[in-house]
Amino acid sequence: MSLDGDLSDPDRRILLHDLRLTLAPEWLPDVLVALSREPLSYTGLLGVLRSYEVARGRRWAQPVLRDSVLHRTLRWMQDRGLVERDRGQQWPFTSVYWLTPAAMELVRLVLPMAQWAAAHEDLLELDRRIWAERRRRRKNGTKARRSRSR
Length: 150
Prior knowledge:
The mean pLDDT is about 80. A hairpin with a 7-residue loop joins strand 2 and strand 3. The protein has helices spanning about 10-20, 30-35, 40-50, 65-80, 100-120, 120-140; strands at about 40, 85, 95-100. The longest helix has 20 residues, at about 120-140. The chain has a single domain, classed as Winged helix-like DNA-binding domain superfamily/Winged helix DNA-binding domain (Arc Repressor Mutant, subunit A, Orthogonal Bundle), CATH 1.10.10. The chain has a three-stranded antiparallel sheet. It is globular. By secondary structure, the protein is mainly alpha-helical. Helix 2 crosses helix 5. This is Transcriptional regulator.
């Protein structure tokens, strides 16, 4: 199957829907970017992901990556052929993770999306405010109202 136009619109939608499900874990893009430079041990990867600083004075909270969440994300990616792992043979057992060729190809597609996000931070900020308002209303027991576009 070629991507040059041989796909019908329904086929494209189905494939994009399936891709969205494959990319579902929240930390998957972070793991892709972190492992795109070099293979890392589990502890090294966790350290890299926890060391990200909030750049350019953004006003939202830094997400916290829990050990169990990274474990589930890596297992998810491994089960879907995006990450490979080699477990050491001696105590203490260490695992080293690296991206498969398909995942490296995906990284090359994800990086332009990060550039788009940097160019349109105003849209991301708007989305964060909308979600924050929804959470605030839910916490206070009020329903969120839709804004009407005219």
